[in-house]
Amino acid sequence: MEIKLSSLCFIGGTAILPDRTVTDAVVLCRDEKITYVGQSQNRIPKDAELIDAKGGWICPGFVDIHVHGGGGSDFMDGNLEAVHQSCRSHAKHGTTTLFPTTSTGSPQQITAMLNASSTAQKDWTAETGSSIGGVHLYGPYFAKEKVGCHNEAGCRPPSRKEFERYFKSGIVKVATCAAELPGAAAFYRYAHKKGCLVTCGHSNSSWSEMDAAFKNGMRHVDHFWCAMSTVPSIRKRLGVPMQGSMLEYVLGNPEMSTEVIADGMHLSPELLRFAWQLKTAKRLCLVTDCNRALDMPPGRYRFGPLQDGSWFTSDGKVGWASPDSLASSVSGMDHMVQNMHQSTGIPLTEVIRMASLTPAERVGMDDRIGSLQRGKQADIVVLSPRLKVRSVFLRGTRFK
User: Fold this and answer.
1) Cα separation of 18 and 373, whole Å?
2) 62-362: which CATH number, 3.40.50.2300, 2.30.29.80, 3.30.365.10, 3.20.20.140?
3) In whole angstroms, what is the distance from residue 394 CA to residue 129 CA?
4) Nearest-CA neighbor of 48 among 1, 16, 10?
5) Mean pLDDT across the stretch 287-313?
């Protein structure tokens, strides 16, 4: 049951802003919006409902632009309950806005996912969990040699007739395609024209192919170091002389952004810190890339559609496609934030930015979400001193 409050006041903690912290903070909210962030106790209305952070952190709600499911459901199951179950699961972990992410399904499965996500977006209430900012059209336009845990049978080059149908839904806000595929240039140009964050992922593309993609509107690369090209893989594909890969292109182009899965299993602390040092918090996002095994017991699960998605095994820490191949994460954004900060020593303000404002900026929603700022949605997470979620508020309503 959602508890609707007209006036909220967060006290007793430290507020995290994009560039600094505010101790003994007062964060006021009314009618779903933040109205004040500061230290003045005189600003507290007499009728306000007080939320005591008890020495913890008052943070903006997390924004996840790459997430496949949770709580036993995958967005590609293609029905409303699967969408709601996934959104509820991620809300428990502090994510207040997410972008349901497709995998390598059939056109019918992708369409069903888009339709279910659109319905959930329109009918959102705080009871249904994280709000949907848009859909991330991720699969099916992957290179087969970089398919990862996705079902290889669903990989295909982009067809204009197919992808135009997806964009007509109006809900696609992030769009991915491997840069080396035939038809990629048309896909990138079309997605850019539609105002999407245009990305390259599950790709074995070279520097020159990435540069061509950049000229066509591509500005982001999915889950850095995972299912992406390297100099040796490009040499195997294109021969000598050796050429630059996605890695070098992203690090060498200051306009490119990327993302990391900071679950402690995909990337080591030095790689996480290296990505932050080179791209900075303004160009590096935290994502979960989480599958349906979030908050579920260890076991065998489907990645993608329940009907025919590929199988993976969760050990409770991460998903495995095989004994030596990872299959996305099984952790929420709160865990990503904890590990990114505690294992690397990156300042907490920077880590929270990577989990909130930076992804909001990349998808063009930073005027509404992503930071504790007057006029923005009252999407607020209260964390304990050790960064455990204590409470989550979605547009000023406490999530239960």
Assistant:
1) 10
2) 3.20.20.140
3) 8
4) 10
5) 97
β pairing state of 380-383 and 21-22 = unpaired
Helical packing angle, 160-167 and 184-193, nearest 10°: 20
- 303: helix, strand or coil: strand
Q: What is the dihedral of CA 361, 352, 122, 91, to 10 degrees?
A: 160
Per-residue pLDDT band for 100 (boundaries 50, 70, 90) equals: very high
Q: What is the mean pLDDT of the chain?
A: 96
Contact predicate 348/17, CB 8 Å: no
3-59+377-398 topology per CATH: Urease, subunit C; domain 1 (2.30.40)
Give the pairing of strands 389-394 and 397-398. Answer: antiparallel
What's the pTM value of the predicted model, to 2 decimals? 0.97
Q: How far is CA 336 from the centre of its chain?
A: 11
Backbone angles phi, psi at 62, to 5 degrees: -80, 150
What does the alpha-carbon distance between residue 5 and residue 368 come to, in Å, rounded to a whole number? 20
> For residues 191 and 141, is the Cβ–Cβ distance under 8 A?
no
Q: Mean pLDDT over residues 388-392, rounded?
A: 98
Specify the domain boundaries for CATH 3.20.20.140 within the chain: 62-362
Residue whose pair of structure tokens reads 């048309």 in the numeric block: 186
Q: Residue 310: helix, strand or coil by DSSP?
A: strand
Q: What is the average pLDDT across 313-339?
A: 97
**pLDDT tens track for 41-90:** 888 888 899 999 999 999 999 999 999 999 999 999 999 999 999 999 99
What are the DSSP E strand ranges found in 158-256? 172-176, 197-200, 220-221
